[in-house]
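User: Hi! Is it possible to get a structure for several chains at once, not just one? Here's what I have:
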Amino acid sequence: MDGHAGRDPDTDPPELTAAVLADLQAGLLDDATAARVRRRARDDPEAARTLARFDAVRGELARLGTDASSAPDAPPDVTARVGAALRAASSTPVHRIARPSLSRPQRVAVVGSLLAATAAVVIGAVTLTRDPGPSFPAGPTASRITVAPEDFPIPETELRALLSAPAELGALTDPQRLASCLAGLGHSPGGPVLGARTDRVAGRPAVVLVLPDDVPGQATAVVVAPTCSADDTGLLARRSLNLS
Amino acid sequence: MGIFGAHRDGPDQPLGDAELRSDAELLAAHVRGDRYAFEELFRRHHRQLYRLAKLTSRNPDDAADALQDAMLAAHRSAHRFRHDSTVSSWLYRIVVNACLDRLRRNRVHSCEELDEQAGPTADPTGRLVTALVVERALLGLPVEQRAAVVAVDMQGYTVAETALILGVAEGTVKSRCSRARAKLAGALDGLAAGATAG
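Assistant: Yes, the chains can be modeled jointly so their relative placement is included. Here is the combined structure:
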């Protein structure tokens, strides 16, 4: 942190270096120091130019975030690889594709099938399905585990019991990991968890979460991997739960 | 030809029509079961998506991995898109989120800088040159500083949100933004000096 923060307000104002002005703009200075720096900067043309430069930087960064026309081409192999992964995902209903990277461990996930018979139970699916038989990319890193498609792994009575019991989040007890998992599930990273417990599903460790739904009076129950994160939830199943 | 070669599920969709569909239409088609719609959406935006991944990753390999993971996550969660932003903004945010989350999980104390990489080689306009200078300057920053300004100044996250995503204190985010902006201002100064000298 810059040494100018927290100076004694009775001493002379800090020198208006670029670093001090950058700290001012970033909100790093304490209130008293920030006020004195602002006062001096108002009467200092060089300081005003420096602050304008920082504003210009922020403007250019914002433009870069949306100015797709200036973006350079991505490496063809990257585009091809991602395109192939998306193509495979569109034609495979119940598996996830692991990256073809020998340095990473194999990752296996299972997703229940769509459209259960009753209106009260919806099995969450990771991808849409059209083909009768899934296919997998060549290579040793892709494999699949199936679960019975029709039933959510946790009975409804047990899901309701979670609503009045202390949440048992297991590996997702860490707030940042939980926030990342919630974001990956499409929920607010800082949102509440109505109930949770650790469990084993299809012979694997899992975490059961009950989360608020957009529909009043309803919740969403999900079974995810303990490693659930924004880019890999390991979602196994999902259902709606009527709270009334 | 390309990847949109001879296959189309819908008999009423000649290849050319696909290029006329908006992002929202492509996403809706994907949700309805169009096997190629999401890939087309990705290819339409792949340059900006890769740019964002590169700017928020330690190295090109990480960027490629994160981009693929992010696109697969978006592919899976497309049905939950609430149309509260443009489709492209939604994709950009998913990529940046995935990269920032990866940085948080793989936090190390060394500061790695990406080598400068070739930028666009199209005829330079003022806009392209400025973008190139800013992007190269960004890639010259330590990844921690780069991630902070990408999150705050490029994606519009608050300092608090960025701190949560990166798993650091808010003061740390502010400090990283301060250092990064100061360095980037120097890069833009060089651009302006070149313009006036030329």
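Chain B has two domains: 20-106, 113-198. The radius of gyration of chain B is 19 Å.

User: Great, thank you!
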